[in-house]
Amino acid sequence: MQSIKLPTQPPSSPHPILNLSFRVFFSGAAVFAVLIMTLWAFVFTGHTDIAAQTLNPLYWHGHEMIYGYALAVVAGFLLTAVQTWTGVKMPYGYKLLAIFSYWLIARLSWLAFGLGLDIGAGLLLLAAIFDMLFVASMAWVVFRAVLQVKQYKQMGILAKLALLTLGNGLCYWGIFANDMTVTKIGVYLGFYLIIGLVLTIGRRVVPFFIERGLAYDGIDIKVRNSKWQDVLSLVFFLTFFITDLFYPNKYLLTITALGVAIVNLIRLAGWYHPKIWQKPLLWSLYLAFFGMCLSFILYALQPWLGFSHSLAVHALSIAGVGMMTLAMMARVSLGHTGRNIHQPPKMVNVMFALMVLVFVSRAFLPIIAVEHYLLWVMIAQGAWISCFVLFCISYLPILSKPRPDGLFG
């Protein structure tokens, strides 16, 4: 007798925001970007009771921008993209809520510490536990999916997640051992690993987005990456970040930073088409990559011109973490909720312009007029906060509502 295979029940979740990882993590990252920068403005000007003897406020800021904001965006993107790459269902519903809750509890603990509500390092101990749970659970579901379909080319991304876990662990080890040098290494290791992820993922998706975006207008363009560009970019970047973090040598730093910049400027030239300037979801990605190249040039010039190393770090973080993640979230949030990526919210141009202002004000204006440094920092902070407020207004309704076509996702 022939058996009849009944259709499986379609997936469901208690709320649309838990349908796919990008929804809840992009939403959380955007709200957190507003809160953490607002609080940093108060910490920076000495208006909170943060326990500076436990943790240098600069590392409090750096940790949360990397392991708080940036890693949330990475989680939202990876846990969505890996499902597309492998065909393996990623966590949704209550399982996704559990992973997000680990991230959220850790972030609330760091926010409370920044407000000065901690006694000793109790809140940071709580944060350490849930941060490790967050990264471990995220890495496990990605690792399981990759192994299930034997897609070993994704192992490089898994290696970066493992090293991010190590970097975050070093941050906490330094805090509890009262060794800020170890915490600094953990912060910078996380920062450069995130930049490495951005370079790796960006070289894959930016050309694809450019091709798809221009094809909508009937422009047939084939954007290619070459193997020599990938290899040279990786070698220069790996040598650069090891040099900057562990073996400071201005000659090697200059050569490697210029190497990363030149290779990726050549790559950008191959991606260019004048029509991208008519599409904010394309020119924002392009400018983010270009801003990263400018940032590496700043690294190369810094030992010779004498401006602060922090300016190069902030330039790279704003372009590679701020602008790139903002542009990716703006595009992915539309495409994966079944909305027209060619008709983004009206505020996207203003959002991206504000992030350009952050980049210029925080990284370049202090070089030109260092006597107004505090003013430039405050302008950058205000522009960042305004940018993500606009993102929340424009995109939280999209991220929290069902797809217009009724599909799960």
From TrEMBL:
UniProt entry keywords in alphabetical sequence: Membrane, Transmembrane, Transmembrane helix
Q: Pfam family example for this protein?
A: NnrS
This protein's record includes keyword Nucleus = no
Could you list the residue ranges that cross the membrane? 20-45, 65-82, 94-113, 119-143, 155-175, 187-210, 231-247, 253-269, 281-301, 307-329, 350-369, 375-398
Superkingdom of this protein's organism: Bacteria
Matching InterPro entries, A to Z?
NnrS
| Protein name, as recorded | NnrS family protein
At the highest ranks, the source species' classification is:
Bacteria, Pseudomonadati, Pseudomonadota, Gammaproteobacteria, Moraxellales
